[in-house]
Amino acid sequence: MRPSRRRAVGRERQRQRRQAVRHRPWRQLSRNQQEVARRLTAGQISQVTVSGWGLAARFVAFVEQLEYAALLEVDGQGFQRVMIPIARLLLTYHLKVLLGIPSMHLVPTTLFREVALLQLIGYTTAQLQAGFCQRGHLARGPMHRDTLAAAVERLTAAEVEGILNAAVQRLVARGCLRTSRGHFALDASDLETTPTCQGAGTKTVPERTLVGRGTARRVVDVARLVSGFKVLIVYEVRLRLVVAAKVVPINEHESRFTLELVRQALANLGPGVLRVLLIDRGFLDGLDLWTLTHDLGVDFVVPAKDNMRITADARGLCRRLDPAEGIVEQARAGTRKVAKDGREHWPGQVTVVGVPALRSYDQYGTAEHAQRANRKDFDGNALNAVAVTAWQGHAYAAGDEKVFLTSLPVAAPLAVLDLYDLRSLIENTAFRELKQGWALKRYPKKTEAAVRGHVFLTLLTFTLSHAFRTAAGQALAAHGIRRQRAEQHTAMVLIFADEYYAIFDIEEVFILLRVIPQHCLTTDPARVRRKYGLPTGT
After folding, report:
1. Which of 131, 154, 177 is the last residue of a domain?
2. Rounded alpha-carbon distances, angstroms, from residue 16 to 19, 24, 78, 110
3. Last-in-domain residue among 375, 394, 418
4. pLDDT at residue 25 in the model
5. pLDDT score recorded for residue 100
6. For residue 281, is it within any domain?
């Protein structure tokens, strides 16, 4: 047999083995509170354990209802053999992210200790005690920690992006974005790594530092070389859902990926969901802005750069109010406050001016339109602007006003400014929360594939947790993951009864066993009796 033929036969056998593993049920248990309560009162339970992570158990129940695990059964092109179903490996990594385990070294002692949670995603008692094989000399858990890290590294870019896209589409189909107002933000954030990380890009960034001693000490700008990657996301600012994402080397400019990300977000969300895109000036590109509005049907708000002609025009016209020409001013009163040094300021006070139909942005149009910019008969396309003339009670000098460009009407310019103010949420409730609360920058390995896999699985966990349609999910969305972990009850009991499991508060267990405490701190005995059909007064 020729070598090429042998390789083809080998690949086909690997594919068949993956298919065989894929069709095994990833789940072996289903949640049923009523049935487990009935069996508990009858003394027919198979296992009981205490876990301080009832949040994670509810997360597993949520993704089960979403049928999310079916999306994780990817081809696994980087896997040469599949002893553990890929969906189970990825769900295990989701639990690592959700429980806030920052390091792969802590996985055996922290994640693998949560036997009940691992059983919920399909691990058997034998697998948890002895592992899937004898390799690695396991002291605890179903696999070596490096097995989990390697699984994340072996996912291709197409596979992880496909999982995120399919998950967003499923959330839309389940109505999780039904309350969206159509306001999304697009932004990028650097993910620094060590210079030895494979596939990392490099760029030079300015950094301020103190030099000198004593009275000669001063602040200077120095150049610092950084290595790493960049994550770009399209983010629903109110529901806190990531609907499209991409990971690129840190030296790539974010404006190259604007239309690709927006088109993917539109494909994931369906028509009519993404209506306004809030972007930073790093994404300012005339052709992209024109395509957003005229080809994709998406309005935008973006800050203008100081050296643009349209910025100078907006600053000049905003001082010449003319309601007949649509140049109108709006102001919002603030509250007078006096600082300790006696100076007064007015938080909340702002004055803006809407300037419509400016035609001095030559690049705003098609590629052919921009090429005619130097011709005498050239006429630019109309674009609206909002100029901020006063902020927090401080009036800007003429020529220093902050200018925003938009395809939205500017008859009520305050509404446009308030809308753009939502863009800050992508920095505070997305990137900052992901880096500080979700260990986004704690990568399992120092390779491009491992960084990309970790980032996408973290974004997925973050998005799915905010899409909870339960009280726990709403609390998570409101308070953030770190506060939710701190507030999580530690007295949660997981009870298994053959093919069913349930999660109870410790007081509920005693009430079901008819040993009612004299003082219940978290439950109401009468409510528990009604919920599980116990006779009144028992």
Report:
1. 154
2. 5, 13, 15, 35
3. 418
4. 39
5. 86
6. no
